[in-house]
Amino acid sequence: MDNLKNSILEGNFNLAKKILKNEDPKEIERKLSILAYDLDNIAIYFLVLDIVFEEKKAFWHGVASTILSTAFVYILGSYQLSYKHMNEALNLEPKNIDYKEGILLFYAIPDKILDVDRAKKIAKEILEVDPNNKTAMSTLESINNSAY
């Protein structure tokens, strides 16, 4: 973890990418999230963004979204940018339930970046595959209880 941290802080993204290359995806997201919180340094997002541009994979958009909507949520515009990344992840993997759940979180925040019609549609799509999905059920419940 120290090698990864140092390579990011030194701006050596090539080394950071080599370190991450053989890691399990869940471990990559975990490590980058921890570093984003611990270091409070936007360079971690820029490393992920660099990889997004190179690989154009849903996974990396998901990681970018997670980092922006958690560790860097205090930065003005982070939710909007996070939504853009999650939306792109979903566009790249439209059947991925994790990304569908991720996009629903943008209906749950006070800014309600995700509009109600799309939130309903996605929640229903999730429930077709996973009838007990708590995120989807909670979203529909919230929609039904609001006067939108």
Helix content: over 70%
What proportion of the residues form beta strands (DSSP E)?
under 5%
Number of strands: 0
The number of helical segments is 9
Kindly give the count of domains.
Answer: 2
Low-pLDDT runs of 5+ residues are none
Q: Give the ordered list of helices and strands.
A: HHHHHHHHH
From the helix content, strand content and strand pairing, which structural class follows?
mainly alpha
For the report, how would you describe the main beta sheet? none
Amino-to-carboxy terminus distance: 46 Å
Form type: elongated
**Rg of Cα set:** 16 Å
Oligomer: single chain
Mean pLDDT over the full residue set:
95
Summarize it.
Helix content is 74%, strand content 0%. It is mainly α and 148 residues long. It starts with a helix and ends with a helix.
Walk me through what this model shows.
There is one protein chain. α4 runs antiparallel to α5. It contains nine helices and no strands. By secondary structure, it is mainly alpha-helical. It folds into two domains: 94 residues, no CATH class; 54 residues, no CATH class.
Fold blueprint:
Blueprint: H1 2-9, H2 13-21, H3 25-39, H4 43-55, H5 58-69, H6 78-92, H7 97-108, H8 116-129, H9 134-145
Helix pairs in contact: 1-2, 3-5, 4-5, 5-6, 6-7, 7-8, 7-9, 8-9
Characteristic terms for this protein:
mainly alpha; single chain; elongated; about 150 residues; 9 helices
